[in-house]
């Protein structure tokens, strides 16, 4: 949990307000104001009460994920099929099939706190986890939390985690006498949840317990390495930590935790937890589905009501730029470029989840942006980027370090600036 005394913010509202501003730069929208449509879904969603009754929760904060997951599915089809809509709802490309949403909820930690949830629903690409880590890292950096650490684990697919949980059960059986009598009944029914409890209590047997990454298949290792490559490219330090775990009924593949370090005691203080919750969203959808999230928790102090400025199509400068990428090498470098543009206060649209350039160009046409910046494999290797004016189809190749200044000199930013004389 983020302690406000460690940040530059006087109260909870100011922290959350700035965190939301950063999230919305990357395209996240308020989940609670999105249009919802059950009719747009191919089949009815599983009732929340039924899903809840089927899950063995390993972590206290997993229960709050249920309502968000179900609401995201309701909104996904409705938003993706809607036209550019009301004030406060950003432009959405029809049939994009991917939803980026934020939501604020009271924390389930038992301590007065609030959590900002960020969700990406509809893509199985590792770019989703990478983007969530980038946004959470940017929020922490702007809060003044300079001493941060990222711990990451991978529990694989349900098949891999089944083998892992089976061996956890055998391991706990061997150490049952050292386990608290109140936890022993759970050890037989929910070995993974028991292990999470023992880790939280600092039980001496946990360091020698089986580790989930040892059970990954080659395909799962390659998928995990893709995420680690994004982190390497971003220059985000990380450590592999087998103790970052959650219920296999909720999570699959990557799980991560971001923490700060107390300057006086050196204690590690986690403030963000996230990962891929495909199994949970698939239960609700009754069909395979993809979803990732991160939850950033802050203590409650002072004001908590966020003052949001009215957003209207006339009063808000919409991005005049669409950022398109071509190829894996370019996609790996996009997040660094986006962070530099955010620091320069230059808004952009992007579709990191698209694999093909044609899909991105269709999105740019739908958004009617006057400029497109394009990074292909050649540009990624040379450290340049193409800036194309849609009206004339003319383009310039710009070195990446010069891109923000180039766009500012040409008054290429928000829609208002783009048409300035």
TrEMBL record:
<dbReference type="GO" id="GO:0005737">
    <property type="term" value="C:cytoplasm"/>
</dbReference>
<dbReference type="Pfam" id="PF03129">
    <property type="entry name" value="HGTP_anticodon"/>
</dbReference>
<dbReference type="InterPro" id="IPR045864">
    <property type="entry name" value="aa-tRNA-synth_II/BPL/LPL"/>
</dbReference>
<comment type="similarity">
    <text>Belongs to the class-II aminoacyl-tRNA synthetase family.</text>
</comment>
<dbReference type="InterPro" id="IPR004516">
    <property type="entry name" value="HisRS/HisZ"/>
</dbReference>
<keyword id="KW-0436">Ligase</keyword>
<dbReference type="InterPro" id="IPR036621">
    <property type="entry name" value="Anticodon-bd_dom_sf"/>
</dbReference>
<protein>
    <recommendedName>
        <fullName>Histidyl-tRNA synthetase</fullName>
    </recommendedName>
</protein>
<keyword id="KW-0030">Aminoacyl-tRNA synthetase</keyword>
<feature type="domain" description="Anticodon-binding">
    <location>
        <begin position="327"/>
        <end position="409"/>
    </location>
</feature>
<dbReference type="GO" id="GO:0006427">
    <property type="term" value="P:histidyl-tRNA aminoacylation"/>
</dbReference>
<dbReference type="GO" id="GO:0004821">
    <property type="term" value="F:histidine-tRNA ligase activity"/>
</dbReference>
<dbReference type="InterPro" id="IPR004154">
    <property type="entry name" value="Anticodon-bd"/>
</dbReference>
């Amino acid at each position: 949990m983020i302690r406000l005394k460690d940040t530059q913010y006087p109260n909870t509202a100011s922290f959350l307000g700035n965190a939301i501003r950063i999230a919305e730069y990357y395209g996240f929208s308020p989940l609670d104001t999105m249009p919802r449509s059950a009719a747009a879904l191919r089949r009815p969603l599983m009732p929340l009460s039924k899903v809840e009754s089927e899950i063995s929760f390993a972590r206290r904060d997993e229960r709050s994920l249920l309502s968000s997951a179900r609401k995201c599915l309701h909104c996904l089809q409705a938003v993706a099929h809607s036209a550019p809509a009301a004030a406060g709802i950003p432009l959405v490309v029809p049939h994009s099939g991917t939803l980026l949403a934020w939501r604020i909820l009271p924390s389930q930690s038992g301590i007065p706190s609030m959590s900002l949830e960020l969700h990406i629903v509809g893509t199985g690409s590792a770019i989703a986890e990478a983007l969530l880590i980038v946004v959470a890292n940017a929020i922490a950096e702007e809060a003044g939390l300079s001493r941060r650490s990222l711990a990451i684990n991978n529990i694989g697919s349900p098949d891999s985690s089944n083998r892992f949980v089976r061996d956890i059960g055998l391991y706990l059986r061997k150490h049952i006498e050292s386990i608290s009598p109140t936890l022993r009944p759970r050890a037989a029914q929910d070995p993974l949840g028991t292990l999470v409890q023992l880790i939280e209590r600092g039980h001496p047997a946990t360091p020698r317990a089986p580790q989930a990454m040892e059970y990954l298949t080659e395909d799962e290792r390659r998928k995990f390495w893709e995420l680690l490559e994004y982190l390497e490219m971003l220059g985000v330090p990380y450590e592999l930590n087998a103790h970052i775990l959650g219920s296999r009924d909720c999570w699959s593949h990557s799980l991560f935790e971001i923490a700060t370090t107390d300057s006086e005691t050196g204690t590690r203080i986690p403030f963000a937890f996230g990962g891929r919750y495909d199994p949970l969203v698939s239960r609700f959808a009754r069909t395979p589905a993809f979803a990732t999230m991160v939850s950033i928790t802050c203590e409650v102090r002072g004001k908590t009501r966020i003052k949001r400025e009215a957003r209207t199509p006339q009063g808000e400068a919409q991005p005049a730029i669409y950022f398109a990428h071509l190829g894996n090498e370019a996609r790996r470098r996009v997040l660094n470029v986006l962070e530099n543009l955010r620091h320069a206060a230059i808004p952009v649209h992007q579709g990191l989840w698209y694999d093909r350039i044609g899909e991105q160009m269709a999105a740019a046409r739908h958004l009617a942006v006057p400029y497109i910046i394009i990074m292909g494999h050649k540009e990624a290797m040379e450290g340049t980027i193409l800036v194309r004016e849609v009206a004339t189809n003319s383009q310039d190749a710009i070195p990446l370090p010069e891109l923000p200044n180039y766009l500012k000199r040409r008054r290429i930013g928000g829609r208002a600036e783009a048409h300035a004389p």
